[in-house]
Amino acid sequence: MNIDIRDSMLEARIHRHMEATGAASPEEVLLRLLDTQEEQDRWLLENRASINVKIRLGIEQLDRGEGIHEDQLDAHLAKLKSQL
Predict the structure, then answer these.
(1) Domain for residue 1, yes or no?
(2) How confident is the model at residue 1, as a pLDDT?
(3) Closest C-alpha among 36, 6, 30 to residue 17
(4) What is the rounded CA–CA span in Å between residue 9 and residue 12?
(5) Domain count, the chain
(6) Residue 2 lies in a domain
(7) CB contact at 8 A, 14 and 5
(8) What is residue 75's three-state secondary structure?
(9) Which of 3, 9, 72, 69 is nearest to 34 (CA)?
(10) Does residue 51 lie in a domain region?
(11) C-alpha 59: how far from its chain's center?
(12) Which of 35, 30, 37 is nearest to 2 (CA)?
């Protein structure tokens, strides 16, 4: 199979990715990207139920008024990051 890349920006991205990762060819870049995507898809499928539970819990908290107001969000996230 031959793939023609007609978008110069996409071609440049592939070349940057090759340089950043040490990939030997565009094919190796595509293989790594497909492997990564398949792994992410598998993880999402395996964890879908627990992700949905967390989303549901978050929505319930927001419905009860337990959310963080937009004005306070940056400070709250900074505090959480400092605790890591």
Answers:
(1) no
(2) 85
(3) 30
(4) 5
(5) 1
(6) no
(7) yes
(8) helix
(9) 3
(10) yes
(11) 22
(12) 30
Place of tokens 């990207």: 33
- In-domain check, residue 78: yes
What are the CB-based long-range contacts (under 8 Å, 24+) for 59-62?
Answer: none
- How far apart are alpha carbons 56 and 64 in whole angstroms? 12
Quote the pTM value.
0.65
Between CA 76 and CA 70 the distance in angstroms is 10
CB 67 within 8 A of CB 61: yes
Domain that holds residue 66: 8-82
Q: Model confidence over 21-46: pLDDT tens digits?
A: 999 999 999 999 999 999 999 999 99
Helix axis angle for 26-63 and 8-21, nearest 10°, is 90
